[in-house]
Structures
1.
Amino acid sequence: MRKTWPMVLSILYASAIYCFIFLPVAVLVLFSFQDGRFPIPPLKGLSLRWYEAVWNDSRLVEALVNSVTVAVGSSLVAVLLGFLSAYGLARFALPAKGLQRALLTAPLTVSYLIIGMGLLITFNTLGVPKSLLAAGIGHVVINLPLCFAIIYSQMSDHQANIERAARDLGAAEWQVVTLITAPMLWPALFASFFLSMTFSWDEFIISFLLTRFDVTLPVEIWSLLRSGLNPKTNAVGSVVFAISIVLVFLLELVVLRNRRRS
Amino acid sequence: MKMAGGAQSRRIDLGPWAFVAPALLWTLAFFVVPFLVMVVVSLWERVGTKLVASWTFANYLKFFERGHFFEAMINSLEVTAIVTLLSILLAYPFAWIIAEKVPQRWQRIALVLAILPFWTSYVVRSYSWLLVLANNGVVNQALLGIGLVDEPLDLANSRTATVIGFVHFFVMLLTLTIYANLVQLSPNYRKAAADLGAGPFRIFWHVILPLTLPGIMVGAFLTFVLCIGDYITPQVLGGNNELLMPQVIMLQIGRRADFPTASALAILLMIVVTVAYLGFARWIRLERA
């Protein structure tokens, strides 16, 4: 008996926390199928009409396309810049390396609100209009430090030896980078790309500050919130959740496979 | 060999810089410069709708003069403190159960499940809590159903709702950092303490807890930083009775386009975060060892 009580308590406690964690998501998804005008109990029946409403809302679909474009574009730039800088700092003798690393990772320590505000005020002063491009620039700022840190941590001496061998065999520097280093670091590149995608995909405040007419999905959802509780918001929220899960699953798959191999 | 020392063999070796320069320039142009612009603008004045270059601390003084700015900072600090404490208290036993009671091969799945809603859209998650806590929402209907209350409770649009929304997010975060710390502990510490005659409570209090302090502190710091700087959760869930700092800052930008005041308030908030960082610093190592 003495051994069962802690186990029972543990199970009860863990179940309670799992319930707490899943409660809002479960309610969100369940009432996205509500066959009625309000996403609150009672559930009047299941229907897909709110998903249809999302699909027919051209602003939401446009925002979704915008979000994907910004996420893919900014993540590609972030991974490219992160990879090049990680390679440069790991492989060459450069002055003030510590300072350069500190500068590259500095945006991690500042809140998105302040990064977005800084860009807003700067662009405003320069007369640069609000746009998706401006939001994308902000997303590169927040994701570049992550990409750099992830890729830099994967640069090992073992790879440096292989790169050296390639150089001895007559490869030019750009050939070493594209044909030797990048393929060897492929899991790190992939992981940082998808991590950037998920962060950019979900980012709200920078996009909110820096876009106006063409907006990203979180900003469009934000303006939907003004209409109060609405099953359509549930439906679009569930779609966003599903897409995020797919992204995380892909990331998990690659990281897992990589771990097993090593 | 083009590694260290290779630089002298050429006249001007721009090669290595070509790799590092794009990232450095990007960070300078779109992070450092905007931040400096913000600092400069925080010293400017807004006359009518125009910004006038001047050098004045008036915007910073407003923070202490105008009651509602100062109040917003106090609110933010209170909410952040409550959220951080509650999240640690809820997450620690949970992380401990996953690390100690769940069979090893299931731990990863238990953890992935525990942080799955972490990946829902942040805006949507706050909205979901609005659904759950609304007057005729799931929680109130359940309470009415089992007869615990006679009238629906005013849960949404209050500080309670903001705290619940935050705690939901940060329990997931802290479970991760504390779990990572717990599984690193060698079982030998516990065995040694038990051999020396310590009971389970003393082992936990004097051995396990101090050893997991780094995990708690890293999570607590992340919670503090992300919580005090967040606009979405209080804006969606908090109602109109009290405002937090990010809401006040956004009000200056949105409704009034008062960039100088907004910048000054944001910089004051950053100073608070920096002070907190210095307080947490002994437990946190951002750099690789």
2.
Amino acid sequence: MQMKEYKPLIVAFCCNWCSYAGADLAGNNRLNYPADVKIIRVPCSCRVNPMFILRAFQRGADGVILCGCHPGDCHYTSGNYYTRRRMAMLFSMLDYLGIERERTRVEWVSAAEGAKFAATMNDFVAQVTALGENKRLEDLRCKR
Amino acid sequence: MRKLSLENINKLFAAVAEDKTLYLPVDQSDGSAKYSKWAEGTVWSNALNTVRSPKDLFFPQTEDLMEFKTEGKNIEVIDIRKESEDFVIFGVRACDVKSFEVLDRVFLSEPVDSYYASRREHAVIVSLACSRPSETCFCTTFGIDAINPEGDVSAWKTATDIYFKANTEKGEEFLASIEALTEESDDTAVNEQKAKTADIMKKLPLADLTTDSFGGGKTEELWNNPVWDEFSQTCLGCGTCTFVCPTCQCYDIKDFDTGNGVIRYRCWDSCMYSEFTRMAHGNNRLTQKERFRQRFMHKLVYYPENNGGLFSCVGCGRCLSKCPISMNIAKVMRKIGGDK
Amino acid sequence: MQKITRDQLITKAVELLSNGTVSAVLGWQKGEFDYDITPAVFTTEEEIKNNFVYNDFCGANFSKYLVAKTKKLEGKILVFLKPCDTYSFNQLLTEHRFDREKVYAVAIGCEGMADVVKLKNKVDGIISIDYKDDAMYVDTLYDGTVKVDYADVLAERCINCKSKKCVAYDELMGEDGEVIDSARFDEVARLEAMTPDERFAFWQNELSRCIRCNACRDACPACTCEKCVFDNPNSGVENKAPANSFEEQMFHIIRAYHVAGRCTDCGECSRVCPQNIPLHLLNRKFIKDINECYGEYQAGAEVGSRAPLVDYTEGDLEPGEVFERGDNNA
């Protein structure tokens, strides 16, 4: 049997107003980033609650990245400030439970930063690929 | 009666584990004991009993029943049942042995639960007589003899030796399989210990608890007892009592969507939970009082009514030591009139 | 041993009940043994005189009961609060979970409560307990009377008591204490210093014992949702039993996360856990992180304070920087 090349599954939560538009721009500019990144559009980065992140891992994600407007630029004024605190606490807790800290990331990407979006995704995919499959926060039932 | 020096107990475990999986109480990192698979180096716990009951081995907390795979408009149903492997449960106390009878009446009556039945058929139960009962023990209330436990094989542990006696055909086979390790012995030492333990049993604080006020046909009499209001007032509604109970047998069947199919599984349910027996119209029992009443009425009235007077409590005392607010069946029985 | 006695509390309860200040009393009811004490609502003098007890095993935090007990109550309910309970009391008030007007709170000084599990690990067959000044004398089935030092059975949460100060009450019995500079974060720091593999192994061992009885959640004074997400069949994560290690992890992460910034560190979660999982170490991790990242914060220290996770500053650290704390602590 031939070993299949390992391709991580990445879930990217992108806020509607900045990061999703940033992803769009990356597409319009024909910038390359791996197709293993699955984007989920959310109204604001603060819509993402910790359960979303955990559920993404449960369903087979190897890495989860959350993108929102730059602090100060939130469409709803302050949403991403809350995100920042929440995710800092969540990531720290995951790390405390022994789950690889490289599997999660928050990045601020504006609508004008198509290039940053593509670069971020390339970097994150490379980082997760290096880690390998998510084993510590997996639900085997979803891999049957 | 067969005898083995406790020094050689690990040889016995090794011999048993050669062709059967062996489960026995093993101390955990938190100091409590748990039924665990024996492997070289495993040390048999001295604890009186485990926190989780041995019902786990017949009726696990979660168990996959079947699987569905969908492809387009086709659904494939996959039977994932496997014939259980032969296994031995070693060191089961008299109360827990009795709990198997309570579970059998539920799972082995028609329609037979094949998942449970398969495990039951493949198990050999080696019970262990008690010699240091705890203050929370009240098995005698339910007519259980802690010093003469049932099971396929009964065992008695003294300071230096362990003695075995077979009660069933399976038990005879088990003893035959370890015959080379054991020697024939009289029962003097066992009888001595039995007498000592019997004395202690009489001194237990709950020794005077009786079931006289309970049993089949008492539903109307006990339904409106003020005890339910009073004692359920501070019940947290957690499931501790039901999950550590060796006889609680309620479960829920659910579907888990895996993203590429469905796994139908069952898991223990607790009558203490607000979602217990939830139906299309909502819940039967809307308040904690009703849920609280359900648990005790089921154990002390409904179950004996349907099962020839057999109570579905075995007096193991797990709920007495584990309830976060120390509310338990002994208090309920006392209040309603369990005093002699 | 507690300085406040059962008789003092009974006198107080009877006085307030008979002069009409309160119509019910939330207190401790004696059990079959000396240690299995049940929280109970008393409404008559007779009940109080016959069944009310107070000793070293009265560890239950009563604050959460006020949410349910004040709802349909005529008049006021008397509640006895230990110092740590007063923090939960304030936190619930901050979240508008019960009507302060319906409660008469009597704060009682606390010398630290005993842990039944610790006692049972030391002594078999407990018949009765005599509380003397120097130690408890336990009458047992097997070993006669055994002397047990209070310090040897002191609950973990009391060894690391954060405060003996009563922060909310209508009346104080005994002496008020001070906030203590405790070593409660030492164990968290010990875990943080481990490698991720060691931490993972540690938590797998602990969480794999979980039987999902929900006692930690149900006893928690900060967990007061009308309907928990884990009980809601429409939430997609409802589960009555952990099917695998993922579900164990998810439940415990979310349980601790949902009370992050609101947890007063009363330690009820660990006390009630039938499997002795050190759940407070999850909660304390959040408290420690919050203190280090967003400034010292003690939930329940005062009514009306804004919890750190529903607040922000423009200069907060980035999620990626949370691992590289040290010089840049806020």
